[in-house]
Amino acid sequence: MTERVRLSTGVGPLDEIVGGGYIEGRSYMLHGPAGAGKTILGFHFLDAVGDGETALFVNLEEDVEELKADAASLGFGTDDIEFLDLSPGADVFTEDRSYDVFSAADVEAGPLTEAITERVEAVDPDRVVVDPLTQLRYVIDDDYQFRKQVVGFTRYLKSRGATVLFTVQETGRNPTDDLQFISDGYVSLRTDGDQRRVTVPKFRGSATRGGDHAFRITGDGVEVYPALAPDEHGRSADRETLSSGVDEVDDLLNGGVERGSVTIVSGPTGVGKTTLCTQFANQAATRGERSVVYLFEESAGTFRKRSEAIGVPVGEMVEAGTLRVEEMEALDLSPQEFAAMVREEVEDYGAGMVMLDGLSGYRLTLESEDGMLQQLHALGRYLKNMGVTSLLVDETSAVVGDFRATERNVSYLADNIVFLRHLEFQGELRKAIGVLKKRTSDYERTLREFAITGEGIRVGDPLTGLRGVLTGTPEFAGEGHSSMDLGE
Predict the structure, then answer these.
(1) What contacts 202, CB < 8 A, 6 or more positions away?
(2) What digits encode the pLDDT tens for the residues 214-227?
(3) Diameter of the chain measured on Cα atoms
């Protein structure tokens, strides 16, 4: 079977979504509301013209000089693009264009068709953008005749060997469902406040990547962030056990956490979750490995100052390239965009450990709790497939009282669950650490006292002489108790 020739959309990640680009000689529809970026995607397509190819932009609405200025502001060159300006001029307003006997379609459709065919024959374009095709509805007011003309128009361009991209803008009065059937495929752009989504519901002759993909309009045009497809990524990695650098924590975990595993560290505010996870990154740095920390809930400056106060040299690690700290603004971020950032760190910079601090902030990038689980599941699977160790910080709401392993029902995602707990004991606030789950091996089922000091993390012996530790208000149950003198 002859392999179909693909033409780049001009946006690499969109090429990835549609299986390599638009199929040569076919017509595609860009659908979306005003301001969604349809015209910009048209310029991306024409800007990707190859050697020996010609490009034609048929503008039916916006003034050609304004189009060129807008394109230039985004970095697109227009010198190699031929324009056919069919937009209404000022004379439409100043001159009387009413017709007493004939309809507008009878009078204007013929010259419009002639202008298009003349320019197409003169340019012989390989790539054509028509923006917006729906403007023809105002010239051809009969729905049947409009569809007939559109089919004939696109077939004419395709018979000339052109690949056609046309934009449509739906209004309540003029839906565009009929154009979806006429096109060989269509790209749908949606906007909902700050959230922008792109999907490809139809693409004849090719598989596409399903799911909700995100995009953003920037000073360089449209940037697309495909939904993460974990099964398309993978590499071999040794499943060795990674130490935390704290012997007692390693004892709880039967040596540490496995490379490529997902570990959730949960507990209430101020208990030491971030500090414990940072200790794993610090230990990774001693092995010469790179880690990346995404801060959703505190500033990079606070993180650095707090870590260095207990002997974790964050500044030195960043300077040496063994650590990157990214301060995230969750409300300005989509989960697809975040996944693209993680992929870049893993695939381009070799990060072997990724820490998300924390899940409550990450959730703000999503529209629903179900969406969070789906996106986090995909991210966790991707990191696991790539042999990257994940550390997820999950803040639980209760300081003391009823015990909860995780706050947002994410425990099924984890290979390991380490929990930290505040204790109120004889009028003093203390902390405890324990392991609730470890998929790959056995683990220590006792609880130990946990403390953060100027020298770092300190963990005591098992709290064998206490009961009710998980309630937050333990009592003596016998003779033994922690070597850190809990309760003495």
Answers:
(1) 180, 183, 185, 186
(2) 999 999 999 999 99
(3) 107
